[in-house]
């Protein structure tokens, strides 16, 4: 009997090594834009807009400004998915006038002054604003991405979300970094 257990132990060790070796490889396949795209989708998924903002038959519109790679990744992340029964549309680099139709705006690669203007333009409007710009939540934005110990993290300014009449899920708030 002891001889038959040796191959089982070897198989278990081999399986463990394969899993250990494959984990870093698959983690490297996930790009920063892809990760941000999935996060943005999930932020929207765990946010409730006032009922009068997104009519029943209308899509939920996500706008991406300043980062085409995140826009492309977000399109892939939302393809064929619904949020609260709404189809999802992604607009990349929308004109200023069309930003008024955005339910979610992700902005990156702009100055703090430009971010301040964007946030001021949708202040008190039910728009989920997200960025990776340093101090974005201090400017009135709702969600800010940042890296901490090599991991993508996020902070949520609940006061800005309430001012925008958005209800953020307590499950999402529990994952957010405290400010």
The percent of residues in helical segments reads: 40-55%
Proper CATH architecture of the largest domain = 3-Layer(aba) Sandwich
User: Given the helix and strand composition, which structural class is it?
Assistant: alpha/beta
User: Which strand order spans the largest sheet, edge to edge or round the barrel?
Assistant: 3-4-2-5-6-7-8
CATH topology of the largest domain: Rossmann fold
Number of strands: 9
- Share of residues in strands: 15-25%
Largest sheet: 7 strands, mixed
Shape: globular
Would you tell me the overall average pLDDT? 83
Q: Number of helical runs?
A: 6
Q: What gap, in angstroms, lies between the N and C termini?
A: 60 Å
CATH domain class of the largest domain: Alpha Beta
Q: Tell me the count of domains.
A: 2
Rg value:
20 Å
Which segments are poorly predicted (pLDDT under 50) over 5 or more consecutive residues?
1-28
Structural summary, described in words:
It contains 6 helices and 9 strands. The chain is of the alpha/beta class. The strands form 2 sheets. Strands 3-4-2-5-6-7-8 form a 7-stranded mixed sheet. Helix 4 links the parallel strand 5 and strand 6. Helix 2 crosses helix 3. The termini are far apart. The N terminus is likely disordered.
């Amino acid at each position: 009997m002891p001889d038959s257990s040796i191959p089982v132990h070897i198989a278990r060790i081999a399986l463990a090594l394969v899993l250990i070796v494959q984990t870093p490889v698959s983690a490297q396949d996930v790009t920063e834009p892809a990760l941000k795209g999935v996060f943005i989708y999930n932020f929207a998924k765990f946010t409730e807009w006032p009922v009068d903002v997104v009519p029943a038959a209308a899509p939920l519109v996500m706008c991406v400004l300043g980062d085409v790679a995140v826009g492309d990744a977000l399109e892939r992340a939302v393809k064929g998915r619904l949020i609260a029964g709404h189809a999802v549309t992604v607009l990349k680099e929308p004109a200023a006038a069309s930003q008024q139709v955005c339910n979610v705006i992700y902005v990156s690669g702009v100055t703090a002054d430009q971010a301040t203007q964007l946030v001021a333009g949708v202040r008190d409007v039910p728009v989920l604003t997200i960025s990776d710009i340093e101090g974005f939540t201090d400017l009135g934005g709702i969600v800010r991405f940042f890296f901490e110990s090599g991991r993508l993290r996020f902070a949520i300014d609940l006061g800005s979300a309430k001012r925008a009449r958005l209800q953020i899920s307590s499950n999402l708030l529990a994952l957010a970094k405290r400010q």
